[in-house]
Amino acid sequence: xxxxxxQPDSRARRSLITGGAGFIGSHLTEHLLARGDRVTVIDNxxxxxxxNLPAHPHLRFIEADLGDALSALGPGEVxxxxxxxxxxVGVGLVMKDPxxxxxxxxxxxxxxxxxxxxxxxxxxxEKGIPTLIASSSEVYGKSAKSPYxxxxxxxxxxxxxxxxxxxxxxxxxxxxxxxxxxxxxxxVAIARFFNTVGPRQVGDYGMVLPRFxxxxxxxxxxxxxxxxxxxxxxxxxxxxxxxxxxxxxxQACRGEVFNxxxxxxxSIRELAELVIRLTGSRSGIxxxxxxxxxxxxxxxxxxxxxxxxxxxAAIGFMPRKSLxxxxxxxxxxxxxxxAGGDRxxxxx
Length: 348
Ligand code: NAD
Fold this sequence. Notes:
By secondary structure, the protein is α/β, with parallel strands linked by helices. The protein contains 12 helices and 14 strands. The chain has helices at residues 23-34, 66-72, 91-96, 98-118, 165-184, 208-218, 237-241, 244-249, 268-279, 290-293, 309-315, 323-334, and strands at 14-18, 38-43, 59-63, 81-84, 131-136, 188-193, 196-197, 222-225, 231-233, 235-236, 256-260, 265-267, 285-288, 303-304. Helix 4 runs parallel beside helix 5, helix 6 crosses helix 12 and helix 9 (268-279) packs across helix 12 (323-334). The chain is globular. The two termini are 31 Å apart. Bound molecules: nicotinamide-adenine-dinucleotide (NAD).
């Protein structure tokens, strides 16, 4: 990993990944390096970790808040593509510190969109730098309809309940990105991620799969909220990161929002049972009432499943890796047996 710009190579694509030391960002970094890009990562390491990043001569890492780093980049610093993943991620983190989470998600996105709109690569045929914006299935709020389609109406809880501010902040990010596209001609594609899973995801802020696998490996109970009838769809990280450049590369995807994830539903109780079975654990399942797991006013969603019609039609998206394979990968990583794995992600 280098902190200095690599030697320019006119043929190599220059990519900027914000939040590149995080879970999704670090896998995307590896994917773009493998296709031959010169990659710059900006990350303030609030939830990301440098150990997630590979040592590679074509990787430049800038440790800073995104807005500060962008203003420090000289006028000659131009990228061919930007992937904006930096955010205060997940409902748990946002409920812990809503001021900083909302400010991060909105202010950093404004800074990024300004940067992308104002700079154009010398050999580019379009104005601004094509940018992918990471959004979330949380944007659907508590809509009862399932599966969720990109143009569905959404329903949120009141602003007095901080649980919803992640959804609001990601919705504002989408408004901003679409407006930069319409008003300033910036090439943006918006990806609404559903649950994405794989090695390097940590359970600190409630991500369920690493929490379950960590508990199963440690022989501790898997804590299921409520009765565990709520269901989710889990998509492997490799299917997600190989899709993002395709979304950004397709002209037809510019100015558009896409669901990205798996549409195979599993209840949280079934997920706990599957994790126990695949890890050969002797752990049991402990059912924790929502009133104990979350502050008053918390609402969980019964079901969250994407309608993938739009992304299939646009770029032929089809997740390949099964949940069973991902659980084995996560277990291998958490137990330190996978190549390059470490034990820091173990959260019993
Ligand atoms: P993550 O926490 O691992 O990654 C976010 C990264 O952003 C971290 O490395 C963090 O240090 C960095 N960051 C935060 N604030 C920053 C700032 N001000 N300046 C610079 N860097 C900053 O989370 P992730 O799961 O990899 O999520 C990546 C993106 O995908 C986020 O935008 C998130 O909202 C979105 N998303 C993820 C999921 C999922 O299932 N993982 C689901 C929906 C949406």
